[in-house]
Amino acid sequence: MGVxxxxxxxxxxxxxxxxxxxxxxxxxxxxxxxxxxxxxWVLEHLQRHPEGGEPAVLADQxxxxxxxxxxxxxxxxxxxxxxxxPHKTDRRRKIVTLTPPGQxxxxxxxxxxxxFELAAMEALTGEELEALVxxxxxxxxxxxxxxxxxxxxxxxx
Length: 157
Hints:
Layout: H1 5-30, H2 37-48, H3 55-61, H4 66-78, E1 82-86, E2 94-98, H5 100-122, H6 126-152
Antiparallel strand pairs: 1-2
Helix pairs in contact: 2-5, 3-4
């Protein structure tokens, strides 16, 4: 059912090269606003969840180290794009939300980024786009299954 290991290694290299190039392109685009890809993920999450959330929970949801999340939130707060307010029941905890200027900034950034993503998708045929999405989902599921298998065998986290 699967492919031979040598072929998989060659394709893995091509895949990772493409992934890193795509990452570089995102970083190049985000320089327009002097933000990192981590900041993009935070803006995207907070735009979808205007009620905000706690920094630690947000870090988990966007797969970011908590220290990195703190730095990212500090940068956005300095620019006036977010605020940290006390939690309703525990004053030691904070809730992070976008300010009105932060909401406008997030909308601008995400509209432009999404525009480039859609333009790239529109350059593909319908069949190519369907295959890209289907194979990406299939790859993600196979990767997850491999991780779960390792965990069950006792060699994972």
